[in-house]
């Protein structure tokens, strides 16, 4: 997540994206360049089928450049995903309104990532095995996808803050 006054920019080679996704980008490019990045992810069940839900949604903007999709995140601002709220509330014995209240801000904007994780940690305490820690999540993701990362390293540019 970016610090104040900074922007996090992700560059992904267009060739690394699925054909259908690239076609959808072209259709949306003239009208809509905002997107939501789901983070962190939860695995649950919906109508008996395993489902992956983004728990939080991070606002970002995208554009196509020569051979790349560039995604910019300009604020440390995470909103709770309403679809996750409904699914998590059912499976964890929460009322959706009570779970939503945990992540609510008075001014209607999202939470900073660390505050979001702290609230998630408390809300999911009885549902998780182990601790929720953004650093550990990143480390596990990096270790488990080491082979994938090495294959994609030439297609995805480095993530770096931009002043």
Could you describe the 3D structure shown?
There is one protein chain. This protein has 163 residues and is of the alpha+beta class. The chain has one domain (7-162). Helices cover 36% and strands 30% of the residues. Strands 1, 2, 3, 4, 5 and 6 form a six-stranded antiparallel β-sheet that branches. β2 and β3 form a beta hairpin. The longest helix is centred in the N-terminal third of the chain and has 11 residues, at 19-29. 10% of the residues are buried. Residues 135-163 have low confidence and may be disordered.
Q: Residue ranges: pLDDT <50 for 5 or more in a row?
A: 135-163
User: How many individual helices?
Assistant: 6
Helical coverage, percent range: 25-40%
Largest sheet: 6 strands, antiparallel
- Overall average residue pLDDT: 77
Any idea what the radius of gyration is?
A: 17 Å
The assigned structural class equals alpha+beta
Shape: globular
Sheet-strand content, in percent, reads 25-35%
């Amino acid at each position: 997540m970016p610090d104040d006054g900074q922007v996090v920019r992700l560059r992904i080679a267009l060739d690394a994206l699925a054909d259908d996704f690239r076609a959808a980008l072209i259709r949306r490019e003239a009208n809509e360049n905002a997107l939501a990045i789901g983070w962190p992810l939860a695995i649950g069940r919906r109508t008996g089928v395993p489902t992956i839900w983004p728990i939080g949604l991070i606002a970002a903007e995208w554009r196509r450049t020569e051979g790349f999709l560039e995604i910019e995140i300009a604020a440390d601002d995470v909103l709770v995903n309403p679809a996750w709220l409904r699914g998590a509330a059912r499976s964890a014995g929460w009322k959706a309104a009570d779970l939503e209240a945990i992540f609510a801000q008075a001014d209607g904007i999202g939470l900073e990532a660390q505050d979001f994780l702290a609230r998630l940690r408390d809300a999911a305490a009885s549902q998780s095995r182990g601790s929720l820690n953004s650093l550990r999540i990143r480390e596990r993701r990096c270790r488990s996808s080491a082979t994938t990362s090495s294959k994609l390293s030439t297609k995805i540019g480095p993530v770096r803050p931009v002043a």
